[in-house]
Specification:
single chain; alpha/beta; Rossmann fold; 2 domains; 12 strands; elongated
């Protein structure tokens, strides 16, 4: 009986050892595949939903190459939550973080902490502030479009529909967002070159609900306003709603930036003049591919991605 019990014990020990070896082997195989975290801004914005879909499609096609974690904040101004997500990814020991920062300055310190922990960081969509990067002594590559160039393209197209010195207004993005600042500068480049009068430039904080009352007030204050240049399509939707409510849809032109689905429909209907496509579906995967390249020993450097003017003609 004792001999039987001893045999059973030996078998159990042997099985336990084998299972442990298998478990370690599985864990090892899993760790051999790098984990990439995509940290985005507002998932309420169609642009970032499209970005997420593009990233997931890329991952599905390359599942054997990397693991993907995707997170995003609900409110584009919730910088604290985005910082928390970076901290979470540091704790989870991901290999790379691809981030579209809600704030060009505030996210730099936590991304530096990620780099100090041995994590590759790639900046997409909204460029980190160069002065803050220099102050922190870090270099984080930016993979994304030239927002100033894209906004200038839209502004120049708009200028062709106006006459100097027509009055125009700019609805800006979040003040600390580099891409918003660059888009404002691009709009200004085009309007000043064409001799237009910029009567107002205010922040709509990227949101439809915040842009609408601003534009509503502008239509009252400037009865001869001819155009509203919006730093993203969500704010353009708010501008269009305000202009419609004021009964001035035939008098005030609107341009946007991002080429979301809702704006494509409005382009066809003649409710918006143009927008700019920075290819949201590809922007994240550009960053992911670059992060994977860096994990293999690539040298970090900025990479410019395409921007394209979208008009009703280009949709045909």
């Amino acid at each position: 009986m004792r001999k039987c019990n001893r045999s059973i014990t030996i078998v159990l020990i042997f099985c336990t050892v084998i299972l442990s070896i298998l478990a370690v082997g599985c864990k090892q195989r899993k760790s051999d595949k790098p984990a990439v975290a995509l940290i985005m801004k507002s998932l309420a914005n169609e642009f970032f939903k499209t970005m997420e879909e593009g990233a997931r499609t890329h991952h599905k096609e390359h599942e054997d190459e990397y693991e993907l974690k995707v997170v995003g904040i609900k409110d584009e101004q919730d910088v604290g939550k985005q910082i928390d997500y970076v901290e979470l990814m540091i704790a989870q020991r991901v290999d790379a973080i691809v981030i579209a920062p809600a704030d060009s300055k505030a996210l730099v310190p936590v991304c530096k902490r990620a780099m100090d922990a041995g994590i590759i960081v790639v900046n997409i969509d909204n460029k980190f502030d160069s002065a803050v990067l220099e102050d922190k002594g870090v270099k984080i590559p930016f993979v994304g479009p030239d927002n100033r160039k894209g906004a200038r393209l839209a502004g120049e197209y708009l200028a062709g529909k106006l006459k100097s010195p027509d009055k125009v207004a700019i609805i800006e993005g979040v003040p600390n967002a580099f891409n918003g600042i660059q888009r404002k500068l691009g709009f200004e480049d085009a309007m000043k070159a064409a001799g237009m009068s910029i009567v107002s430039s205010q922040s709509g904080y990227w949101e439809t609900s915040k842009a609408e009352p601003i534009v509503s007030a502008l239509t009252t204050e400037y009865s001869d306003l001819k155009a509203v240049l919006c730093a993203n399509d969500s704010m353009a939707l708010g501008a269009i709603a305000a202009i419609r409510a004021a009964g001035k849809s035939d008098d005030i032109l609107v341009i946007g930036f991002d080429n979301i689905t809702a704006v494509q429909r409005l382009l066809k209907e003649g409710k918006i003049l143009c927008t700019v496509d920075q290819h949201a579906d590809k922007l994240a995967l550009y960053g992911i591919e670059y992060a994977l390249e860096m994990l293999k020993g690539g040298t970090p450097s900025d990479r410019e991605t395409p921007v394209e003017l979208i008009t009703v003609e280009s949709l045909k």
